[in-house]
Amino acid sequence: MSKYKAVIGLEMHCELKSNAKVFSPAKNGYSEIPNSNISEIDMAFPGILPTINKESVRSAIMASLVLNCQVPEYLYFDRKNYYYPDLPKGYQITQMHDPIGTNGKILIDMDNYTKEVLIHDIHLEEDSASLDHYIDASLIDYNRAGVPLLELVTEPCFNNASEAVTFLEYMRLVYKYLGISDADTKMGQVRCDVNVSIMEENAKELGTKVEIKNVNSFQNVKDAINYEIKRQTELKDLGRYEEVEQETRRFDEESGTTIRMRSKVDAIDYKYFVEPNIPKYKISEEWINEIKQNIPILPRDRKQKYLDTYNLSEYDANIIVKNKEYADYFEECLNLGMDAKISANYLIVNIIAYLNKYNMELKDFYLQPKYLKQIIDELSKGNISSKQAKEIFTKSLEEHKEPKEFLKDNNQISDIDELTNIIDTILSNNVEQITLYKNGRTNIFDYFVGQVMKETRGKANPTLVKEILTDKLNKAE
Amino acid sequence: MMDKSIKELHELLINKKVTSDELVKEALQKSHEVEDKYNAFVTILDDAKGTMVTDNLLSGIPYGIKDNYSTKGILTTGSSNTLKDYIPFFTATAVENLEKCGAVPVNKTALDEFGMGGTGTTCHTGDVLNPWNKKRMCGGSSAGSACAVASGVYPYALGSDTGDSIRKPAAYCGIVGYKPTYGLISRYGLFPFASSLDHCGVLTRCVEDAAIVVDAMKGKDAKDLTSFDSSNMHLYNSLNGNVKGKKLFYIKEIVDSSNYANIDPLLKEHLDNYFKTLDNLKVLGVSIEEVSIDKTLLQAIPSVYVCLSCAEATSNMSNLTGIIFGPRGNGNNVMEMIKDHRTKGFSPLIKRRFVIGSYILQKENQEKYFVNAQRVRRLIVDKMKELFAKYDGLILPVGTGPAPYIDGSVNHISNNDTSIIEEHLQIGNFGGFPSITIPNGFINDLPVGINITGNCYDDENILNIAYALEGTMNYKGQVAKENNNE
Fold it and tell me: What are the C-alpha distances in Å from B326 to residues A45, A140, B71, B322?
């Protein structure tokens, strides 16, 4: 650990899901074929004008509300002007003067404490094209140009890499829960800029801020922060802190270090001004309220519910909420009135293992909650044993048939007379054991149950067997 | 035949006195004559064909398109070397709307590069000459359109107007130029100069034609968020010539001779002619009042215009890099290539405006220049709106007189500060006000114009007043008669 306090701020860019791009009607979707999801607007042919995708605005407002931000009365955009080959118009339409959210905060859970993260602002903008560089040429793919991008800017409120990454992971999960983004880092849908400075523990003034641009995985965010803290600490210890410059650096994955790009002096003046082609749009109270009502319960709240209402262990609850698919599956189980603990157990032990084994996604998993219910309900009523349940689970998956089909095969013996006959026979053949039981060897009871099961090849209704046995043994001389 | 109005041509077509093909043929032939004499076009569409004649007044009738309207499959240059070979794959909404009426484009007209000029002498194809006198300019930026309509190539041509680019060349060429309320016509496909000031519009030889054409061009367009629904606005049907009781005003600080010490005789003549025209309106029952506006505010108009238009233009034209379209520049890396493309492609005038625009938008200058210009724009617009609450419109002379000489050195240098009278039409762009220029006489055998500007969405009223005034004079439908007697 460094003896200095690190101060870290994040900018998190996340591509939003939508039918169309944010300022053009072209499709917003990944395609292997370069330049297939494009319109003249995305490529800035002369005479084009932006339209506005209401769905993206809605997503942005939803995120803003979740982050407890202030939503402005009017929606409008700004132009950020600079030349780069991935920016067809020579400006990016973004929000600088009045972002869709400002002054927010959100709680995240660290291992031993809860952290309040302060949000400077969150704004809606368009993504740039993607570039592929080769030795003698660069290729431009405009599929990504104009894809809606949500940029979240935190205050410099993190003190270590772990807090920063926990926040990023949590926000990624929140976006997925809201259904506004797939937030897939592997697809480059999430990209981060990181600010790092260090200061004496009790200093009043912040140290020199270094920005690391375009870090494209959370692991890299962690490595970049840790490297930068180490670099700045070493310079400070050597009395060379003045060598830490206010500058922009990039993270080099291969060496695990950060490399200088440009100093503050060379900072680009983006010449922001209000986008004149998109008139100010009044964001009505009604719309905000409607969006509020559609915000689902978020991971942190869901976890709390699972702990408080359903008595799940913290470990189990964490596993379930950390994946929206799991959490949604579990929610459906609860909605169907299935036993919470058994369902959670089945999900974590059996289903997730199965998915991992076959590298499958939960949405493609055959036993959706309504089918699983057929097993769990029988199991929780004691009509079938755990072993039977497991067998039915496996068969149902193998044959893609509803569990109830196999429950029939497994026809339980619930006929009291039949069971009584079987039990009578067993008891009469085990007089010695009855005596032992009477003398206090209560575990002999399980032996009798086992005998009944053996006799019926496991088909005896265990609840009934136990009832009859208790009755008989109590009456026995 | 092509010197006739839209309604006259429509009558002839409907009654089969002439076919659409014959009109197109004549318009093309005329185009070549005008091109040879005045250099008005970037492209003449020699394979244009007539269309079916329907009830639509515009069907089968040829027209011209300013070369900053995107036209699918047809070279569209913005009169700039940066786009000298650019063939768009989509058509501007306004042009599409005319296409639906069966209107036939026969040429693309030259303009000051990307509309950024008021002379018609900065087109990549060379100077456009005034058809009344070849030593004179047409004004700009809709120079080719004004020249062609005045020469009788067709009854109308499309223009665009950011400062006065339709209304000033109209005056210099003795025709009608109409820029409607901002948003009445979709700008989708119009090459942008300054988005908050840019308007589509039309140049014609009579007010009626302007109303007919804009009726066809207008309409809310999902592709232009600044466009509005005008389905209840019927410009042509509203022309009844009844203007009794209408109230207009003029601005003392602009038209009163006492503002100009030792006034130039030409300006004096222009102002006298203007006041004579006002008398015609009074005869029709229009009352006209003098209004005084703080001169400081008026004097700010040209600088506000320069600040805002250059700033927006710098950004709007940042897409011209030669990467996706336009000739690729040379260089060892992409930034060098962009620089080379822009260095070679733009004329010095435009580059100067880009430098001004960039300077104004710089972080340390924004508040002082850009934001202040926006504030003054607001003050001017508020002042006008306050007056439009009392009056139907503002009536003022266009410029200081007839078209200047192309050879700038010959132009007479005025003893007076004429910047306000030269530039006041920019008020119409600041507020997005409907504004129309019509011819109101001749000075030294060269046409001069008068302008009426009204409140937003009051296009019907403004056109009707212009229509009534036009009826009191003899310049309606006039075609340029070349005289080079100077």
Answer: 10, 17, 16, 5
CA atoms of A407 and A383, how far apart (whole Å): 10
Q: Are residues B451 and B422 in contact, defined by beta-carbon separation less than 8 angstroms?
A: no
pLDDT means per 10 residues in chain A (477 residues)? 86 97 95 94 97 98 98 98 95 98 96 96 97 90 97 97 97 96 92 96 90 94 97 94 92 93 84 97 98 95 94 93 93 94 93 91 92 91 84 90 78 79 88 86 87 82 85 78
Report the distance separating Cα B331 and Cα B339, nearest Å: 8
Interchain pair B361, A46: CB under 8 A: no
- Matching CATH number, B1-486, of 3.30.70.141, 3.30.428.10, 3.40.190.10, 3.90.1300.10: 3.90.1300.10
Helix H or strand E segment including A259: strand A257-263
Domain positions in chain A? 5-287, 297-409, 416-475
- Confirm if B227 and B186 have CB atoms less than 8 A apart: yes
Q: What is the DSSP string of B188-220?
A: TTBPPS-TTT-EEEEEESSHHHHHHHHHHH---
Given a cut of 80, whether residue B218 has pLDDT beyond it is yes
Top pLDDT among B388 and A453 is at B388
Flag if A81 and B314 touch (Cβ within 8 Å): yes
How far apart CA A465 and CA A426 sit, in angstroms, is 12
Instruction: Tell me whether residue B66 is one of the annotated catalytic residues.
Output: yes
Contact at CB, A273 and B361, closer than 8 angstroms: yes
Q: Which pair of tokens denotes residue B410?
A: 């010959």
CA distance A399 to A396: 5
Residues 267-286 of A with CB under 8 A from B: 269, 271, 273, 276-279
Give yes or no for A239 touching B (CB within 8 A).
Answer: no
Structure tokens at A157: 């409120």
HSE-CB for A362 with a 13 A CA cutoff = 18
Cβ–Cβ of A47/B366 closer than 8 Å?
Answer: no
End-to-end Cα separation, chain A, in angstroms: 73
Q: Looking at chain A, which residue has its C-alpha nearest residue B371?
A: A273
Give residue for tokens 């306004």.
Answer: B94
CATH architecture of A416-475: Orthogonal Bundle (1.10)
Complex-level ipTM: 0.96
Consecutive H or E run containing B156: strand B156-161
pLDDT of residue A415: 78
Give which of A441, A306, B465 is closest to A326, Cα–Cα: A306
- Side by side, the strands of the sheet bearing B247-251 are B41-44, B104-109, B62-66, B156-161, B199-204, B176-179, B435-443, B446-454, B393-397, B247-251, B287-291
Q: So where are chain B's domains?
A: 1-486
Question: How many angstroms separate the CA atoms of B70 and B224, rounded?
Answer: 14
